[in-house]
Amino acid sequence: MTDKIFEIIILIISVIVHEFSHGYSAYLLGDDTARLSGRLTLNPLKHLDPLGSVIIPIFLIITSANFIIGWAKPVPYNPTNLRKGRFGDFIVSFAGIFSNILIAVIFGLFIRLAPNIGIPIYTSTLSIHPLYIISSIIVQINLILALFNLIPIPPLDGSKILFAFLPARFRFIENFLERWGIFLLLIFIVFVWKFISPLIFVAFSFLTGL
Q1: What does DSSP assign to residue 40?
Q2: Which of 7, 19, 174, 178 is catalytic?
Q3: Are 33 and 77 a contacting pair, CB within 8 Å?
Q4: Average pLDDT, integer, range 84-101
């Protein structure tokens, strides 16, 4: 149960960093919306979504689902204020994903290098050192968030990345996805995610060496 509590805490922190990264990148590109709305902060109370940050993660853990996912309240930004035009929209959309990848890389490197700086993998009782357990959870959850958000279906970041480069003649695709996004996403999770999720374990092994 302790591991499950850590998973929820790490998930909440990770999605908050994800959303903050959206707002901060928009701020750097000239949009003040997140700051003016009080969302350019790492204060959890400003970002928590009761359903996505608490109820859904707890439900997935209690039901022993083979994945855990969640979200915070989206940080608002105004694309028309961004420098670099549509590429600015891409930067803001990818910033959240990049933050999760960066977190996974940092803690993956820690797992790889920790034995070399004197942190043993096993304790005196031959159980895995808590630092390795926590770091592994951090890597896994952030890889899941990064991969999941790359899915090009609204409201996920992958859809905004797709739309940023979609030629005008294919704008009907954006309209279709915006209209049916939630239903398509549910179908994707139920029928397709299980074929993509193994990439998480490949990336985890690559980063950590485990």
Answers
A1: S
A2: 19
A3: yes
A4: 92
Instruction: Answer yes or no: pTM beyond 0.85.
Output: yes
| Mean pLDDT, residues 143-161 | 94
Pair 188, 151: CB distance under 8 Å: yes
Distance, CA of 142 to CA of 79 (rounded, Å): 26
- Cβ–Cβ under 8 Å, residues 56 and 133: no
Is 25 within 8 Å of 157 (Cβ atoms)? no
Helix runs in the chain, H state only: 2-28, 33-36, 56-62, 85-113, 130-149, 157-165, 171-191, 193-196, 198-208
Residue count of the chain, please give it.
210
* Residue carrying the six token digits 């970041």: 157
Q: What tokens does 192 get?
A: 């397709």
d(CA 124, CA 119): 12
- For residue 2, name the pLDDT band (cuts at 50, 70, 90): low
Based on the number of CB atoms within 10 Å of its own CB, is 49 exposed (0-12), middle (13-18) or buried (19 or more)?
A: middle
Distance, in Å, from the CA atom of 174 to the CA atom of 160, rounded to the nearest integer, reads 9
Per-residue pLDDT for 7 more than 90? no
Residue 19 annotated among the catalytic residues of the structure? yes
Place of tokens 């959890």: 44
Q: Give bridge partners of residue 122 from the DSSP assignment.
A: 128
> What tokens were used for 43?
């204060």
